Each structure stands twice: as structure tokens, then as C-alpha cells.
């Protein structure tokens, strides 16, 4: 099958286009003919070798953890031709989704939302599941609480803002000026331009009682700002860097790093919310797989609004 792959770690110049062996589905796996994938920051982190300590990697590696396509043969509850989507992480980093086919456990795969295109479906699984699991499974966000989401205009932030609003929470988020209208259109109640405003002062002015839940989608120094505005007994979840255990103890806050898990049941719930028009899609820019290197470079610049989707038109 045709795929983008690499057989050494490095920058975008390690990426190759060519024929690689097609994965063979094991028992309880679905073979999917992929039509679209999307680019996530994890794709360049894997290409650079940064996740080697977290899970086994086997060359040649096909990047990509978002799947959108159709089922090739009946498997489990799926019938040949079903439109499906999935967060495509498996136990070993090898067969990603920048390819014509992938195989995935039945437990990772969900029917794609009927109301959106296959290209749009590719923008959803990894980021929507991350937002859902971090906000609800780790942080147990409740109605009436206030959540501070850093990086609201990214892929995860785009869904996190909306899911928090659906839950009945108040959302305060950071973005640069050019994305302020975008995050407001997703439902953010209070938007701080981190390039021109003092984030800590702005949060304190709007939420003097302090923040119940922090969802950190940016990491680094921005965590310090969040620590200065969180309430005692709040919850602090980062999807980028492990939060300080010392600060968590000092402030009596539940804090941790969350790594998204494949999760078909929650993907089905996300699908229902999309079809019910309760959850809108992030901003999406569609490219050809032949432009994968440029798309990865753009995501690596950390300036993308919403998502970049790749059509698998090798
Ligand atoms: N642990 C996990 O399971 C998991 C899952 C998904 C993602 N992640 C990680 O989470 C991070 C975000 O992922 P993503 O897919 O949402 O990224 P993304 O879509 O690439 O995020 C890009 C957005 O971040 C915003 N941004 C950049 N620097 C910012 C800052 N200092 N303050 C506020 N906003 C800033 C940019 O907006 P402006 O241009 O307006 O600044 C841009 O719209 C990445 O590091 C990714 O690897 C982890």
C-alpha cells in the first residue's frame, strides 16, 4: 500500500513516500481503507523520536493517529463499507494513518457522524477524546464550575471549550488576538489575549474567587500562570507537561498529565453530539497527503487554528 513513512528519527527530511506492507488484521481488529487523516503535534514528536520512552517503536514507522475511512471486511459489529473514524493509537508505534490502510482493535473504532464528511471526521477523534477525557475523566469538571483552558484555538482547545460549555461550566481561555473571535464562536465566556494582556491579572479580575479546573494545552511557562489562579482543592490537568507535584501538594490540588486513550464508547457520544449539532467542528484546512511535510511543519510552528486534515490521495 502507499504510505508516508520514515526509518530513522529526525526532521521532516526523514519522511518518505512509497510502498510499504499492508497490515493484516488480527482477531478483533478492523481493516480500514483510509480516505483522510489529520495532523497532530504528536506526529512530529514521534517523527523526532520524542515518544520512544513511552512505547515501543518499530521501523518503518507510518505517522498519524487519526483515522477516517471505510471498513474493508465485516468485523465485530462493523459491516463492509461502514463509514468509521477512530483515534488510531495502538500498543506499538508502527502502522499509523498517513497510509491507504490501517488495522485497529474493534474497541477503538466508531461509526463516523452521519452529518459530516469523511474529511471533517478525520479532524475529530484524537483531539475530541483528549478534551473529553482530560476534562471529565481526570478533572471531573462539573456544571457551575469555572475552567481555565490555555491554548483555546488549537485542536484540543476547540473541543474542550465546547464540551465544558455543554457541561454547564464557565470557560476562560487564552489565545492570540487573531483567534479571539474564533474561540468566542466556540462558546468561550472570557477570552484573554496572551500576547497583549497579563494573563494572571486578567483571570483574577474576571474570576476573583479562583479557577476550579485548569486544562493546560500549552505547557512550559504558561503552567506557572495557571498555578497562580487555581483554587485550593481544584484540579489541574496538563496534556503537555507533568504539573509540579510540589505545587499540587502545597495548594491541595489534584494535578497530573493526561495521555489520551482510544475510546470507542466516548467517540460514539461525541459523534451523537456532532449529529445533534450540539458540537461544532473546529476550523479545518484540507490538504493533500503529498503536502504532509509542509502540514507537519505548520503544526510544529504551533500557530494552526483548529485542525489540518490530509486527503489520502497518493
Ligand atoms: N497528552 C495527550 O494525550 C495529548 C493529546 C493531544 C494533544 N496533546 C498536546 O497538547 C498540545 C496542544 O495540542 P493541539 O492539537 O491542541 O495543538 P495545536 O492545535 O497545534 O495548537 C495550536 C494552537 O495553540 C495556540 N497557542 C500556541 N501557543 C500558545 C500560548 N502560549 N498560549 C495560548 N495559545 C497558544 C495557537 O494559537 P495562537 O496562534 O493564537 O497562539 C494555535 O491555535 C500539543 O503539545 C500536543 O502535543 C497532548
Order of helices and strands: EEEHEEEEEEHHEHEHEHEHEHEHEHE
Radius of gyration: 19 Å
Shape estimate: globular
How can the largest sheet be summarized? Answer: 7 strands, mixed
Count the DSSP helices. 10
What number of structural domains do the residues give?
A: 2
What amount of the residues lies in strands? Answer: 25-35%
| CATH-assigned homologous superfamily of the largest domain | Medium-chain alcohol dehydrogenases, catalytic domain
What is the CATH first-level class name of the largest domain? Alpha Beta
Q: Regions with pLDDT < 50 over 5+ consecutive residues?
A: none
Hetero ligands: NADP nicotinamide-adenine-dinucleotide phosphate
Per CATH, the architecture of the largest domain is Alpha-Beta Complex
Mean pLDDT: 98
Q: Strand tally, please?
A: 17
Determine the structural class based on helices, strands and strand pairing.
Answer: alpha/beta
Query: What is the helix fraction of residues, given as a range?
Result: 25-40%
Report, as a whole number of angstroms, the end-to-end distance: 10 Å
How is the CATH topology of the largest domain named?
Answer: Quinone Oxidoreductase, Chain A, domain 1
Subunit arrangement of the protein:
single chain
Amino acid at each position: 500500500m502507499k504510505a508516508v513513512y520514515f526509518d530513522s528519527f529526525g526532521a521532516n527530511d526523514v519522511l518518505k513516500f512509497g510502498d510499504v506492507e499492508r497490515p493484516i488484521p488480527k482477531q478483533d481488529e478492523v481493516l480500514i481503507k483510509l480516505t483522510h487523516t489529520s495532523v497532530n503535534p504528536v506526529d512530529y514528536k514521534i517523527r523526532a523520536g520524542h515518544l520512544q520512552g513511552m512505547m515501543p517503536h518499530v521501523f518503518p514507522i507510518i505517522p498519524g493517529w487519526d483515522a477516517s475511512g471505510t471498513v474493508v471486511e465485516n468485523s465485530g459489529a462493523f459491516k463492509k463499507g461502514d463509514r468509521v473514524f477512530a483515534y488510531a493509537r495502538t500498543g506499538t508505534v508502527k502502522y499509523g494513518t498517513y497510509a491507504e490502510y490501517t488495522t485497529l482493535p474493534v474497541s477503538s473504532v466508531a461509526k463516523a457522524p452521519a452529518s459530516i464528511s469523511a474529511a471533517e471526521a478525520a479532524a475529530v477523534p484524537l483531539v475530541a477524546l483528549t478534551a473529553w477525557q482530560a476534562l471529565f475523566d481526570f478533572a471531573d469538571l462539573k456544571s457551575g464550575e469555572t475552567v481555565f483552558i490555555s491554548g483555546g484555538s488549537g485542536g484540543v482547545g476547540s473541543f474542550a471549550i465546547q464540551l465544558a460549555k455543554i457541561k454547564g461550566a464557565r470557560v476562560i481561555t487564552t489565545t492570540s488576538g487573531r483567534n479571539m473571535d474564533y474561540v468566542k464562536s466556540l462558546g468561550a465566556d472570557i477570552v484573554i489575549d496572551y500576547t497583549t494582556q497579563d494573563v494572571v491579572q486578567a483571570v483574577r479580575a474576571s474570576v476573583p474567587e479562583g479557577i476550579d479546573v485548569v486544562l493546560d494545552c500549552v505547557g512550559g511557562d504558561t503552567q506557572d500562570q495557571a498555578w497562580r489562579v487555581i483554587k485550593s482543592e481544584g484540579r489541574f490537568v496538563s496534556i503537555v507537561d507533568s504539573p509540579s507535584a510540589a505545587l499540587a501538594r502545597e495548594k491541595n490540588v489534584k494535578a497530573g498529565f493526561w495521555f489520551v486513550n482510544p475510546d470507542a464508547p466516548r467517540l460514539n457520544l461525541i459523534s451523537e453530539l456532532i449529529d445533534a449539532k450540539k458540537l461544532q467542528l473546529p476550523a479545518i484546512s484540507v490538504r493533500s497527503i503529498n503536502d504532509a511535510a509542509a502540514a507537519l511543519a505548520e503544526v510544529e510552528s504551533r500557530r494552526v487554528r483548529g485542525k489540518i486534515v490530509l486527503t489520502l490521495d497518493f
